[in-house]
Design goal:
The protein is mainly beta. Helices cover 6% and strands 53% of the residues. The protein has a single domain, classed as TonB-dependent receptor, beta-barrel domain (Maltoporin, Chain A).
Length: 685
């Protein structure tokens, strides 16, 4: 209750300082990595009326997001998702509470509150911990900078749109000086159901409240200590693509960090980060919708994520060496309950606890004035255990181990798994003539099964497999780029050969089992054909991305992006699901010091090469047009407005969730919003 009152009292969120500084050009690639892009939250938001975090990330080539409703779009990077994508929120992790991904980590993020957002596609470093084989997203808040005669600063904003977002407000206040600072920030959103391009209503309403406080100590330019506490609460979230809604999804996050630089001696930099987060999530099929099932079902869950990182840096002649320790613990508990009787048929997450501790060392060696070599190794020690795997819910026949035995004919009986995973990276970068550069990277990384893939325990939906082997990703990444006065472009291509890829499949490959999902009943091949299982197969994922921006003069800017991904199940000779077709955008913008106006064409080709055995639905090609503008009213206040999907296109993004339409009894995907008129006003002081 105290954290709710604090958030409402602070009610803040950073929105658009970059535009207030008249930065019309997109941010350029940082460091040596052409497949890494960094922007601030307000830069990503300035041309779109949809401020939902996952939807905004779709602007970046190679990044997609799966829509289940209006809130919590789940990121997909280079055809990989869930624990294949690392999300680090100011150095910490959050684990969603819904096994069906109603609340991925980004659903607890207020995008506008972050000063730097970095999307790393593929494996560029081994320092961000386990997982992340598809990519890593870093959301960072930097220490505020104060003017000598002004020890405070702040921002406020308010936004709305015609597609359900009735309220989007917030503010941020910072105060301090050379020795330290205080930051208070918060935001509140309220959205109704939106309508798609056909005029049909899509269940998508939600309400969120978010806020954080930072306490910073900066005794000198070389030392920075920061203590942060954050809450993010969502209530009454409706989901078109699910059989349940979420009346509650609350997260509490605490973080402590220390960064020391230019220390002298053999260790010249230290980076220490500690974090702890807890999530409480409730979903049900009756409180926010008309009951259509046989009984009222509620599924409460809670998760905990805690960890630490110690990174030391040393300079050895032409080499910068970074090495250290990564610690991570994840706990998940979830039950399925009959709301009328209180009976507990299933322990969906039977008190699952996963510890993943790592040692890493990574070097960047300057071979010459124009050549760099990056190489490193990380070893992960993994322990995963289902503490309640043999516990009896209301139906003793539904103990998790009984369900695992019924579904997997070769189940070993394991409820405690130990793994040691080795990871390696080598990457060569070279500057060429004409301001061009290229890189080539090779990596071998492993991803252990997550808590759902390994220990999820139900009969009618899907069942985790305790005997899963870790995925082994062998990736080749190539890139070429050029930066000139008027033209910047990046081209990258990748190939990922995955041994023991963890595939969510139907259990028809278990039809010869002597066991049955219905305990005491004879084997039923049809039943095995519909139950969800997780199995190891071999797979390949490949694709390419292209980005450019061309500056005609000081006023005109043309930019665009293009991405393609393909995935193949090499074991069963089938396509992998949730691979986006060729897609991209083309944007033209005109502006001066005080105003700008622009348009963007978004598009995707049709996708018919789908895996019908997974009930994957083909999608049509589509294209739509966005228009946007901004005007600096005075030194402090800016007005932005636009129309998303001006042509009112009725379309779906291919990776959106598939669900059964109760009216036609057909499998369909969640539709995207139709024409959306939006406006945003923000001020700085």
């Amino acid at each position: 209750m105290q954290t709710r009152l604090l958030t409402l009292a602070v009610l803040s969120a950073l929105s658009h300082s970059a535009m207030a500084e008249n930065q019309l050009l997109p941010i350029q690639v940082h460091a040596h990595i052409e497949t890494e892009t960094s922007q601030s939250g307000e830069q990503l938001l300035k041309t779109s009326g949809n401020s939902e975090t996952g939807a905004v990330f779709r602007q970046i080539s190679g990044v997609e997001a799966s829509r289940l409703g209006g809130h919590g779009l789940d990121l997909v990077i280079r055809g990989q998702s869930q624990s294949q994508v690392n999300i680090l929120i100011d150095g910490g992790k959050v684990e969603g509470g819904c096994p069906s991904r109603m609340d991925p980590p980004t659903s607890y993020v207020e995008l506008s509150s972050f000063d730097k957002i970095t999307v790393i596609k593929g494996i560029q470093s081994l320092q961000y911990g386990v997982g992340g084989t598809g990519g890593t997203v870093l959301l960072e808040r930097e220490k505020p900078k104060f003017e000598a005669d002004k020890p405070y600063q702040g921002e406020v904003y308010a936004a709305t749109n015609s597609k359900g977002l009735t309220q989007d407000i917030g503010a941020k206040v910072s105060a301090g000086g050379k020795q330290g600072y205080l930051v208070l920030q918060g935001a509140q959103k309220k959205a109704d159901n939106y309508k798609d391009g056909n005029g049909d209503e899509v269940r998508s309403s939600y309400e969120t409240t978010q806020g954080h406080i930072d306490l910073g100590w900066t005794p000198s330019d070389h030392h920075h200590v920061k203590l942060s506490h954050e809450i993010s609460n969502t209530k009454d979230a409706l989901y078109q693509g699910a059989g349940m809604d979420a009346p509650k999804a609350d997260a509490v996050m605490s973080r402590l960090s220390y960064k020391g630089q230019n220390l002298g001696g053999p260790i010249n930099a230290v980076d220490i980060q500690l974090y702890h987060s807890e999530v409480e999530h409730v979903m049900d099929n009756y409180s926010l919708r008309t009951l259509t099932a046989n009984s009222q079902t509620v599924a409460p869950s809670d998760t905990l994520a805690s960890g630490a990182k110690l990174k030391l840096s040393s300079d050895i002649q032409q080499t910068k060496l970074e090495y250290g320790l990564l610690l991570q613990t994840v706990e998940k508990r979830a039950t399925q309950e009959n709301a009328s009787t209180g009976a507990v048929p299933f322990l969906m997450w039977p008190d699952v606890r996963t510890q993943q501790n790592s040692l890493f060392a990574e070097a960047n060696t300057s071979l010459s004035a124009n050549q760099n070599l990056i190489y490193g190794v990380r070893v992960d020690q993994v322990n995963a255990k289902a503490h309640d795997a043999t516990s009896s819910p209301a139906m003793p026949a539904n103990t998790p181990t009984t369900i695992y035995t019924a579904v997997y004919k070769d189940y070993s009986g394991a409820t405690n798994v130990e793994e040691t995973n080795w990871n390696g990276l080598i990457r060569y970068e070279q500057d060429l003539s004409n301001n061009m550069r290229w890189f080539a990277g090779l990596s071998h990384t492993k991803r252990s099964a997550d808590e759902t893939e390994r220990f999820f325990a139900t009969r009618s939906n899907r069942t985790g497999n305790p005997d899963l082997k870790p995925e082994q990703h062998n990736q080749l990444d190539l890139g070429l780029s050029q930066t000139t006065t008027n033209l910047n472009w990046n081209l990258s291509a990748y190939y990922d050969l995955v041994n023991d890829y963890i595939l969510s499949d139907f259990a028809k490959n278990q039809s010869t089992s002597t066991n049955s999902l219905a305990v005491g009943m004879p084997p039923n091949p049809d039943l095995f054909g519909t139950n969800g299982v997780f199995v190891n197969i071999d797979a390949e994922i490949l694709g390419a991305e292209f980005d450019f921006d061309y500056k005609f003069n000081q006023a005109w800017l043309l930019s665009g992006a293009l991405a393609y991904t393909q995935g193949r199940n090499l074991t069963d000779k089938r396509n992998l699901t949730n691979m986006a077709p060729l897609n991209g955008h083309l944007k033209l913008q005109y502006g001066s010091a005080d105003w700008y106006v622009g348009s963007r064409v978004n598009f995707a080709t049709e996708h018919n090469s789908v895996n019908t055995e997974f009930n994957e639905q083909p999608t049509n090609s589509w294209q739509n047009l966005d228009v946007f503008a901004g005007y600096q009213l005075n030194k402090s206040v800016m007005l932005q407005a636009g129309i998303d999907n001006l042509t009112d296109e009725a379309y779906v993004t291919h990776v959106n969730r598939t669900y059964n339409d109760g009216l036609t009894n057909e499998l369909v995907k969640v539709m995207e919003p139709g024409r959306n008129i939006w406006a945003r006003l923000h001020a700085r002081f």
